[in-house]
Structure formats: structure tokens, C-alpha cells
Amino acid sequence: MANYVAPLKDMTFLLNHVADSRGFNQIEHFADFDPALVSAVFDEAAKFAGQVLSPLNQSGDIEGCHFNDGKVTTPAGWNDAYQQFCSNGWLGLALPEAYGGQSLPRFIAAAVHEMWLSSNLSFVMFQALTQGAAEILLSANDDSLKQRYLEKLVTGEWATCMSLTEPGAGSDLGNIRTRAVRQADGRYRITGQKIYITYGEHDLTENIVHLVLAKTPDSPPGGKGVSLFIVPKYIVDQSGQCGELNDVRCVSIEHKTGLHGSPTCSISYGDDGGAIGELVGAENRGLEYMFILMNEARLSTGQQGVAIGEMGYQRALEYSQERTQGRDLLSGDTDVQIARHPDVKRMLMGLRAQVTALRALSYQIASRLDLAEADPEKRAAHLRFVALMTPIFKAFSTESGNLMAGTTIQIFGGMGFVEETGVAQLMRDIRVTTIYEGTTGIQANDLVFRKVQSDQGEALTELIADIESDFACYAALEIAGSETEMLVQLIAVLKESSQFILQQGKEGRETLLCGAVNFLELMGIACCSWMMMRTAVAAYEQKQQSTDTLYLDNLIALSRFYFAHFTPKVLALHRTLISAEMGIQDYRFEE
Amino acid sequence: MANYVAPLKDMTFLLNHVADSRGFNQIEHFADFDPALVSAVFDEAAKFAGQVLSPLNQSGDIEGCHFNDGKVTTPAGWNDAYQQFCSNGWLGLALPEAYGGQSLPRFIAAAVHEMWLSSNLSFVMFQALTQGAAEILLSANDDSLKQRYLEKLVTGEWATCMSLTEPGAGSDLGNIRTRAVRQADGRYRITGQKIYITYGEHDLTENIVHLVLAKTPDSPPGGKGVSLFIVPKYIVDQSGQCGELNDVRCVSIEHKTGLHGSPTCSISYGDDGGAIGELVGAENRGLEYMFILMNEARLSTGQQGVAIGEMGYQRALEYSQERTQGRDLLSGDTDVQIARHPDVKRMLMGLRAQVTALRALSYQIASRLDLAEADPEKRAAHLRFVALMTPIFKAFSTESGNLMAGTTIQIFGGMGFVEETGVAQLMRDIRVTTIYEGTTGIQANDLVFRKVQSDQGEALTELIADIESDFACYAALEIAGSETEMLVQLIAVLKESSQFILQQGKEGRETLLCGAVNFLELMGIACCSWMMMRTAVAAYEQKQQSTDTLYLDNLIALSRFYFAHFTPKVLALHRTLISAEMGIQDYRFEE
Question: Which listed residue, of A156, A527, A549, B395, carries a Cα 20 to 30 Å from B4's Cα?
Fold first, then answer.
């Protein structure tokens, strides 16, 4: 399979002209931030993704990870790539310089992170873990933990993992059974079994810092009694040096349908008396800390949908321009590139349009995180936006990613079903992304109840206002045609659906629970339509000062394609939402 | 993974009360046809599927087929199962008794075939090939071929395979390069390379009868110059006995992402001077014959969507009733079966509703094939219906099957991504079904241009009349509620879309080519909605004379669920259809 080529032109266009990062150089906070540096960073990252990570993607899938007597060996090439990745400073790109990071804005890190995910998703899964773990340590306000762990994590000298799930506690973390008992020295003894621990054990680093959720004796029941502990594979002393092996053991790794290069571990803590753990922050605040990491992981997971979509698009475009088959049903030409068949062109454009819209959304979220840093006055509004978008982006992008992997295979035809071409791997790798870090159903409930109802619709109302304002810009363009009618309907449907959610009280709760996923998808399409309106407007404006007409006209065509092929889905989703409980209430499982 | 349990109750309900098979015992042609026999056949088939084929499904996936020096070895257990399958008479269930078959109606064969496909899709892929090959021989009117081949194929003593695709000719079979040169004895010398030959080589039978498309010298270009040949692995003499090995060689088998138990072969014909082939029918009529088999294969492929959906539903239901997690967000109960979470219940009902609708459609098509036999006067109308439904059922059912496999994994959560649970195999196995026997795009073009436009909408108009008549029955029921409004819209959209297709002349051709897949999906949902109206009506009527209230009420609930969660999609599909070329015409690939 051909190596990944970072779509720098598309990325740069969206960052410079579409996402809110477009106004960055006018913001004081980023005043000393050199655009030439961005370009240099992107070039280097593109090189590393294309030349180092991408070539390992298929070999890593074929070889997989090895488990032997508690040890996990990553696929050939992983270790070298990891050392280079860290020594090049990629790991801590958006983390503080004070701890060995680069302190670059999030929007740059988002574009770079997407390159890693496209080129080798299995490999780079540790990065979001490190980003999240570092943010937990930064927020937990414990100088000893910061001093001893942070720099080693940010530089990649040590790795981290997130130890949440247990056989009886997946989506419901309040149910965990892992115990933590405080000792005289203030440290804890941890005992319990954890499963599905990504990079829970491996051969890449000297030490692995496990972030473990556990319950202390007499803690309150449910999620309110969960605490977070640092449990290093090798115990770290007060000076920050690795000492003896902790009572932590990798029991097995999973045999998964995809992500073969990423070890998914079952870990046993405390078989031999209790693993030594250090409390993060205060007891019983574990889920709160863990959600810092979880939100980070959800954004990264959303990006995985974009990244696999991009990889699929690249492969499908290349294949469909090489493969000739059949007659052009319009011109009558024979043996044409299959890319010229309208149905294949439709699929290719569908891939590029979805990737473009979701990528823009990803950069938009990252930009608002940056703006939250830059502008304390509007910080709350920016964070409200990010909180609203997190479940939408996580779930909608990964659901789209699965569909895009399917479309890629479809374009390849029979060749897509053959493993050698590498596109079946995209389908296998992406499949778990709608599950881990909270399933689509969980994201939908988070959206409807926490992000819309509990918020009294504040963030949502602000979002709709933004969409309306960008629609006005689009509709005013001379290029706007009959599709504006669909966009007018989109906004109407969006308002109606939002009102519907906000108006439901207790008696409407079942309808919301049954229709939450429909609302989430509706929001996903609305946000992507929004980004495509912005894309079209930006392309139109750029045309006034650029000669890159083909590229810019294609972006406009892609936007209109989105409005014709994706936006109409909101009509169906709205219809389902408002009677979502139909049949479900009356249906009884037969025992 | 638990074994497959044939859903006999659902199957029987749909056959007896929903599909057109419901009136069978009143038709003279089937007068001597004993319902007790049907029941006995179903019981035996269910046993064989559950106890013999299903246990081999996962082991066959893990082991796969072996290739060594031209020989293919099927997975452990395959050979025994094959011998039993044939000696029990399952292979020729719907083929003539005169040649060793059972002459059972198609609607019975359809239900039984679904059991095989659910329990072990990889294994049973040979059956549709045999069914199709037998029908070719029956129609080709060549007594020598019939006498020497037919009984051996129908009884399974010999197997068959369909040798169409070449590296440069997949969807476009007019492009094949395999040559056939007539010899003095009337037989032909065949030379060429074929790929993607399902069961092209294996260890199950003494002989394998290859049906090979090839071109004779000076034949017309394109599809009109393609002929069909029988090329047996061992040459068959005039008395029907196997003689020496033919010049046919299996070169390799594919390493696929799914269907590991079904060998997909590359075959080389004539490396050593030319394989001996016998012409079927007349020269240059190869595609016409092959389409007899192809239509058979398309209907079988459509059933694969139903079958994998059913298997996924069974597994997901079982898992979601065992697995407890989280709090019931309505009652507040803790540690509830995940099946009780509204979003999971929604997914489970979605699986059962889709399977029910598609299964009913499958039986409806089979019934109309039977009716075509039974009633010469209406034969043309019945066959018109089947011709119209073939691309819809093939493509929509397999696209749905892919989505259903995804939903099954989603219900399993993290466990679904782990291969041991067996549900990832469903996703891998089903993936090729939207590709082989004609991609979804090809089915959509067949539907729009051949089955609707060329037919002047005759079959489609008849279908819409049927749907309207069943809607009237549904709307008249006391149980009909607000969903009738959606059904009224469905019929309106169906008529508008049909008119749109019929009204497009040459200048609208691009729109149709870009929107054909949308029209096909719209038709699929319309037909499934139709079957669910019939299901609800039948359940309502049965309630007057049955005490099986829970079961029948659930069917009604399932129908209403379908109208709320699936039927609304036609609103979006119609919208996309009528402006499907938007953006596509203007988009130019960058070289």
C-alpha cells in the first residue's frame, strides 16, 4: 500500500481560512507566534508520518503484538519509531515548555496529531494518553507528582496508560471493584483486575505510569466513591528515580479484529500483596480527574474518524485513477478510469467532503480551546462550545469514519476484500472507535442531557446563531443556488429539534433516550454543513486574490455536494427524533 | 460463540401470513403439497444448521483454507459436513426430482437457504452456484450436457464454480481475454486467467465443473462476443465418466478479510496447450446464460444480508440480556441488563425489524417465482416483479447487512472488537456482499435504467399499486396511529421519485447516474415498509384467533418502530435524488 501523504494544502486552507484559527495572528496572546514555524512543523511532521510511521502500518497489522510471560513486544520498527517520535519532540507538542513540551497552540497540534493517526493509528495511540495524563497532573496541583512525573511523561521517557475498565465495569465506572487501601506512608495498596488497557504493557519505555481508578474502603457508592491513583510499573521514589518492580502484572493481550499494533492489555494489580499507588488530588474525585483525560481522548478519537477517512480517500482516489473498467455512460468512452463513473465519483467526493467537513470541525474545536486560553473574558463561552461539541465530534466522526472505511473498500471492489491492499485494515482498525472512550449511545446521552438540557440550551443557542450568521454569508454569495433552500430547512429543523429537546420534561424522557443518537447525528450533520458553508465562503473569497482556481472551485463544488448528499439526512433524523419511542415502549422481550 | 438457532416461528409467520406464499394451499399447482412436510423439512434443516454447520463457522474462520502446490484444502469438518449436506438432499431442494432434486417450492428453499447462510456463510457458498449452474443446463437445451452433468451437480457428487472475473475484467465482463478455439471434435481449447473464483478448487468433490466465460476468435467485441463453456477439472467423456485431468490449475487463493472458509481461487486455464471445454448453448450467448446464474446468485447474496443480520441479532440479544451495566435511566434500577437501556433496545429492535422486513421481502420474491410457475397467465407480471426486485434486494439487503453487523458489534461494546466473541467475523464476512455478483452501484444502474426506464415503469407501477393497497389495509386497522402520516408521505415520495426517474431523458442522465444508489435505497426502504405494513396487518388478524398475544403485539410494535426509525429516510433520499448531480458535475480531479 502506498504511504500516507499529509494533505497539507487542505489542512492549511482550513486552518487559515475556515476554522476560528483564521484570525490568530491578530490575537495578542499569539502575537509572537510565527506562521513560518507552523509551516516548518507541518513539513517535518508530514515527512515523519509519511516516511517513518506509514511504512510500519501494514507490517504492524500483520505482525501484531506478542505476549509472553507477562511481557509485551510491539511489532518490528515500533521501538525505533517511538524513540524518534519522542526525540523529535512530537509527543509534547501542545504541552508546556516548562516540562519539556513545545507549547504550540492546539490547532497546530490537532493538524499534526491527525497526521499520526492517518499514518499509523495503532502506533500513536499513546499520544492522547500522554496529553491527557499530563493535563491531569497539571490540574491536580501536587508539586511532588508534577516534579517527579511530568517531564518524563512529556518527553516520552516514560509512557502512561489509562486503567479504567474492569470485566464488570465498562460504561459504568461507578461499579469498579479495584480497591485502594491507604498505608502509613500516605501511599496506597492497590488490588484489582483491569481490562482493555491500551498500551498497558510494552517494550517502548523504561517505565509505564498507570492511571488507575480504584475505591478506598468506606467510600461512597457509585461514581462518587472513585479515586484516581498513579501506579507506576516501577515504583518511583521521592527523587523521581525508578526503583523496584511494582506489583503490576500484564496477564494477557486481546486478539482484536483491528489495531493489532496497539497492545490491549489485561492487567492484574496486587497479586502479591498490593501494588503501590499514589493518590492524585483528593480521594473520591477520581472520575473528575479522569474526565480531563477522557475529554482529551474523546477529541483524539473523533480525529481518528477524520484520519482514517483521509487515508481511505487517498487510497481510493489513487486506485480509482489507476483502475480502468467499463464504458463512460455519458461520453461513451471505453476502458475509462473508474473515478470517472458518476457513482464512483460520488463516493470519492463523499469521502473528501466528509473528511473536509469533519477536519474543519476538529480544527474549530481546537481553535476554541486556544481562544479559551487567549481570551479570559470569553473563556466560558469557548469552553461551553467545546463541551457541546465533544460528544458530537467524538461520535459522529467515528460513525462517519466507519462508513468511510466501508466506502473505500467499495471503491476498491473485490480488491478491497483482499487484505494485501490494506484498505480492509482501515475498516478493522476504525471499528472500535465508536465504542472506546464512551460509545455513541453514551455520547448521545451526554449531549442531550448534560450538554443541552442541563445547560438550558445556552451553548446550543450560541452555536445556532453562529450557523445562521455563516449561512447569511453563504446565501449572499453569487454562487449560492437552489441548495440554499435546503440550508434554510436545515436551520429550521435544527431549531425545532433543539426546542423539542429542551421542552421535554420527565414524561418525554423515554423519547429522548430512544432518539438521542438521532439528535446527535442531526447535530453532526448540521455542524459539518456549517463548516462547508464556511469552506465555500472562504474559497469564494480566496478566488478574488488567488489563481488557484481549480482547487478553490473544487472546494465550492464539494460544499454544494455536501448540501445535496448529506444535509438532507437531517429531515429524516428530525422526523425520527420526534417519535423515537414509537414501538419501543410497546415492545417486550420474550424471556 | 453460541450456535445458530433457526428462527422457525418468525420464518413460518412470514411465509404463512405475510409473503404471497400465504395463499399457497389454494393454488392447484401446489395442491398436493403438504404443509406437514414443510414443517418437517424446516425442523431437519434447523437441526443441521444449528448442530452441524454453525459449530464449524468460527473454527473455519480461524483455520481458513490451505493452498499447497495447486491443491486447496478446506477447513477441518468441511468435508464431512459437505457429504452430509448432499446426502441429506439439501443441495437440490428446489431443483427437479428428475435429476436428483426435491422439486420443493422456492419459498421453502428460500427459508432453508437462509438457515445455511446464517449458520455458516463461508461453507454454503457453493449452493447458489449449483442452483444457478443447474438452471443454465436446464435452459440451454442440450441433452448431452444435461445427461452427463446435471444429476451429478444436483446431488453434489460434483461441484461447480463460476469463472467470470479476470484481472482486467470485473464489472465489465465484455472485456475478458480468455480465448476459446473450436477443435475438430466440436470441443474447445480454453486459455486464460481467471480470478476471484469461489470454490474454484477444493477437496470436497471428485470433480469440479467450471463455468467459464471466454471469447472465440473473430467474435464481436464487448459483451456480445462472450460465450460460456463447461470446463471440468477432470474431463468428462461421452458416457459421463471422469477421465484425465484437464489443463486447469489453481494458482493461488486470496487472503481475504472474511469468508476464510470459502476458497477464492485464481485459476489458470490452458497453461499446457489449452483446457478442454464444451460450449453451452450457442456461441456469443454466454452473458445471457451466465445471467441465469447471476440472478440466482444475486438473490442468494441478498439473503446473506438477512442471514448475517439474523445471526447478529441472536448474538446481540443473548449478550445484552446477560450483560448487566449501569442504571436504568427511567426506573432508576441499577445493574440492569443492557437490553433494557433504551438505546440498546433501539439497536436490538432495529436489527429485528430490518431482518423481519428483509426476510419477508426475500420470501415475497421467492413466492412470486413459484407463482410464475403456477400461473402461466400472470407469469410475465410475476417475473417482472422479480426482475425489478432483484437489484433492490441484492443491494439493499447487503448494505443493510453491513450496517447490522456493525450494530451487533456496537451492542457488544469492547467485547465486539475482540475476535473470540465471533461478532467481528460477521462484519468481516458480510463486507464483500455489496461487491460480488455486481456492486451496489451496478445494481442501482440496473434498477434505474433496465428495470424502470426500459420497462416504462410497468413493474414499478404495479408495485406501487400493491403497496397502496396494503397501506389501505393497514390504515383501516384500529391500531394505526400517527405513523400513517409518514406512510402517506412514503407513498407520495415513491410516486414522485418514480416519476422523476421516468421523466429524465438524455439530459437528465447524469443526475440519474449520480442518484441511482439513492433511488435504490429509497426503493429498499419502501419495500421493507410495505412488508412491515403487511406484517402488522397479519399480526393484527392473527390476534383475533390466537392467544400468542406477546408475540403478535411485538410484531406490531416492530412494524411501527420501522415506520418511525427507517421509513423517514426516504425523505432525505428523495431530496438527494432530485439534485444528485449537484457539485459532481463541477468537480474536476486534479492530475
Answer: B395
Q: How many CB atoms lie within 10 A of CB A48?
A: 21
d(CA A403, CA A430): 10
The helices-and-strands tally (H runs, E runs) of chain B is 19, 12
3-state SS, residue B214: strand
User: In sequence order, what are the beta bridge partners of B193?
Assistant: B268
Asked if residue B421 belongs to a domain, the reply is no
CA B539/CA B531 separation, integer angstroms: 12
Name the residue range of residue B186's domain.
158-286
What pLDDT is stored for residue A489 in this prediction? 98
In this structure, the answer to whether residues B209 and B259 fall within a common structural domain is: yes
Mean pLDDT of A331-336: 88
Parallel, antiparallel or unpaired: strands A158-163 and A207-214: parallel
List the single residue in B513, B568, B572 with the smallest CB-CB distance to A329: B513
Considering the domain architecture, whether residues B511 and B572 belong to the same structural domain is answered as yes
Q: Which of A523, A533, A528 is nearest to A475 (CA)?
A: A533
| Together in a domain, A114 and A171 | no
From the candidates A114, A278, A437, A521, give the one annotated as an active-site residue.
Answer: A437
Q: Is B244 a catalytic residue?
A: no
For residue A252, what are the contacts with CB-CB under 8 A and spacing of at least 6?
Answer: A67, A265, A266
Whether the complex's predicted ipTM surpasses the cut of 0.95:
yes
Residues A126 and A219 in one domain: no
Phi, psi (rounded to 5 degrees) for A259: 50, 45
| C-alpha A482: how far from chain center | 34
Show the cell assigned to B237.
467423456
d(CA A459, nearest CA chain B) in Å? 24
Phi/psi of residue A194, each to 5°? -120, 145
Q: Which of B213, B4, B274 has the alpha carbon at shortest distance from B115?
A: B4
In the predicted structure, residue A226 carries a pLDDT above the cut 80: yes
Q: Is the pTM of this model over 0.90?
A: yes
Amino acid B267 reads I
**Distance from C-alpha of A524 to C-alpha of A520, rounded to nearest angstrom:** 6
pLDDT of residue A27: 78
Residues of chain B found within 8 Å of residue A565, distances taken between Cβ atoms:
576, 580, 582-583
Would you state the pLDDT for residue B1? 65
Contact A568 B572 (CB under 8 A): yes
Distance CA B434, CA A416 (A): 11
